[in-house]
Each structure stands twice: as C-alpha cells, then as structure tokens.
Amino acid sequence: MSTRGATKEAILSKSIELFNKYGFEQVTINQICKEINVTKTAFYYHFKSKDELISDFFSFDNMVSNDDLLDILSVTDFADQAMKAMEIFVKHIVRLGVEMTKENYRIHLRSHVPPLDKSQSALLGSVIPTLIQRAKDAGQVKNPANAEDLLESMCNIASGVILNWAIMGGSFDVLAETRKRFEILLVVNEK
What we know:
This protein is mostly helical. It has two domains: about 10-55, Arc Repressor Mutant, subunit A (Orthogonal Bundle), CATH 1.10.10; about 65-185, no CATH class. The protein is built from ten helices and no strands. It has helices at about 10-20, 30-35, 40-45, 50-55, 65-75, 80-95, 100-110, 120-135, 145-165, 175-185. It starts with 7 loop residues before the first helix and ends in a 5-residue tail after the last helix.
C-alpha cells in the first residue's frame, strides 16, 4: 500500500483496535504498520507519533454525529441543549474506556492542553455559549456569571469528572455525574 493509499482513518481505526487489545504502551508503530500493511513512511505521513494519533482520535473535529445533533435539538429548553451538547464531549472522551481515557489525559498533561479546550470546536467555542446565553435570557439558568465563564466552568467540571471516573476505574456513571454538576453550576430551574 502506498503512502497515499494508507488512509488516516484506517491507521486510526487499526491503532485503536490494537491499543484496546494489547495496551497503548505495548503496541509499536511497526506493529500498527504490519497489521494494515503500510510502511512507516505512510504512518508518519499522517501522524508524528502514537501520542499524536491518540490526540487526533480524541479531537473534536468530527465527533458530533447526526444522532447527537438530533438529540440536542430534540429538547426546546436551552439549558438542556447546552448540557446535552457538553455531554457529547464527555461521551466521546470516555467511549473507549478507562485505559484509553487515561492515555488521553497523559498526553494532555504532557502537552499542557486541556482535554476540553473550547478553541478546538465551533460547538464548544460558540454554539454552547450561545445556548447558555439564551437559557439565561429565558430564565432557565440562574447563575449570574457570563456565558463564556459558565462554559469554561463546564469544561473544567467535565474534565475533572472524567479524570475522577478514570482514576476510579469507571466505577460510576460519568454522564449522570457530569449532568448533576452542570445543573448545580448553572442553577437550572427544576422542571
């Protein structure tokens, strides 16, 4: 297979499969290349390292599916829409389980970039603050802080809950805990 023939998605997919099967540290770039019959040049054409591969996998560029959008739009309450949108990020980060979530956090610790960085996504950077502001205007969010600060706090809460979930070995419902913390922060009206 040529460098151009090795798709980024194929490398990503096989790598994640191997990481889940054998563990991140045990899988080598040579093993990934052998499994999908590509050269190291092909791998390095798309990724500089295994860490970059993980970062790319956990990026927000293409994580929102049509089902996710429909889920967000299925409710008319702006506060609930904002929380559902944030939950997309939580689901995406933890979907591969505890060990891959730990690897993702390890990489973020080394690169000094938060796992939930609002500059990485239009949804995170502009849509959610707009939903929060609309919720504030509609009286659905009682916290007086501005929408940008509330989003920043939601990102920090989600990151903390996800990290705690990984440390605790996935022993609690990360989405339920995140939503509970979002509701406390936003001081949402009881329905």
